[in-house]
Request: fold
Amino acid sequence: MSYIFTSESVSEGHPDKVCDRVSDTVLDLFLKHEPEARVACETLATTNRVVLAGEVRASKAKLTQIMAEIEPAVRAAVKDIGYEQDKFHHANFEFQNYLHEQSSDIAMGVDSGDNKDEGAGDQGLMFGYACDETDVLMPAAIHYSHQILKDLATVRKQDAYSILGPDSKSQISLVYDDAGRPTGVHKVVLSTQHSQEATQADILALVTPVIANVLPDGWMVTRDDLLVNPTGQFVIGGPDGDTGLTGRKIIVDTYGGSAPHGGGAFSGKDPTKVDRSAAYASRYLAKNVVAAGLASRCTIQIAYAIGVAEPVSLYANTHGTGTIDDQKLQEALRDCMDLTPRGIRQHLGMNAPIYAPTAAYGHFGRIAGEVGAGTFSWEATDLVDALRAAAR
Reply:
C-alpha cells in the first residue's frame, strides 16, 4: 500500500537549536581543556536572556579558567548563528551561569576504580537506524529537510543584507510506493524569519531555487504544493519569539520519526553519557550494516544500567531485508565493537571538542570529518569489511 510520510527540521536559529548550540559550545570548551571532563549543560534562552544550568566536573586547575571563558564563547556562538536583533543580540543579552559540581553519587557509579571498569553515566535505551533511501543512508524526508535549511543558512550568511533571519523550519511530505520506496514529494512547507520590508514574492524568489536544488530531479513540487510562510509573516523570531530549551528537538536530531527513539537528548552531554555516545554508536553500527549490503534497512537498540560498563542488551532488526539472520548479525556487531562507554569513546574518538557542529541540521547523515578532525566519526563505514567477513 502506498502512503505519505512527513519529517521536519529546524534551523540553527530556532530557539531550541540556539540552546543546543550553546550547550554544546560549553561542552566543547570543557573537552578542549580536559578531555575527561564531565558535563551536563542545559540552556534556556528567551528575550534578551541566556541561562545555563547543570553539572560539571573538571580539575580545579582548569575549572576556573574554563568558567571565565564560557560567557565569551556563548556570545560568539550566538553571533555566528546571526542574532543581532533588538530583543536578542549576541552582545547585549543578559547571561547567567548556574553550572555546578557533578553529584558525587553519579561520579561514584560512573568512574572506573579497583577491579571496576568505567560504568555507563545513566540507565537508558538508545536507537540507531540506517536505510538506503539516500546516499548518506538516512531516511529521505529528514535528510532533505535538513539540507534545505542548511543551504538557506549558507545563502543568508553570504549576504550581509539578506532578507532572511536565522529562525526557520522545513517540512517535507514524501510519497512512498507499495514497496516502501520514496517516489516523489507530496508537499513542502517552509517557514523562515525575514526582514520587515521583505514581501512574500521576495521570499519565494529566494527560497524556491534552494529547495529545487536540494530535491532529486523531477521531485520539485508545483506552487500549489509549496507552502512558504503560511501564516503570512515571520518577522519576530528566535528566543524573542519563543523560549528555547536544550534537548527539545530529539526527533529532528535523529531520524525524523522514521525510527524509534529512546527519549534521551544529546546536546550538552559529554560522551560518558550513553544517551549521546551509545546513540551515536547505534547509528554507526546500523549504517555499517546497510553500507555492507547486509540489509537495506537496519534498526539497532542498545540498553544500559547506570554504573555498569557492558550493555544489558543489544538488538538488531533488519525489517525483513537482511541477507543474514538478525541473531547472527547481533553476534557480529558485538565482535566488531566494544560497546562499553569507554570502548565507544575510544573507537569513535569522542573525547575531543567536536560537538558544536552537531547541534543543528542533524547528528546523523553528515559527512565524516565535515567540520574539524574526528567530527561525525560515527558516520564512517570502516566496519564494512569486518561485518561482511562475520556474515560468511
In short: The two ends are 34 Å apart (CA to CA). The chain has ten helices and 13 strands. Residues 15 and 319 are 36 Å apart (CA to CA).
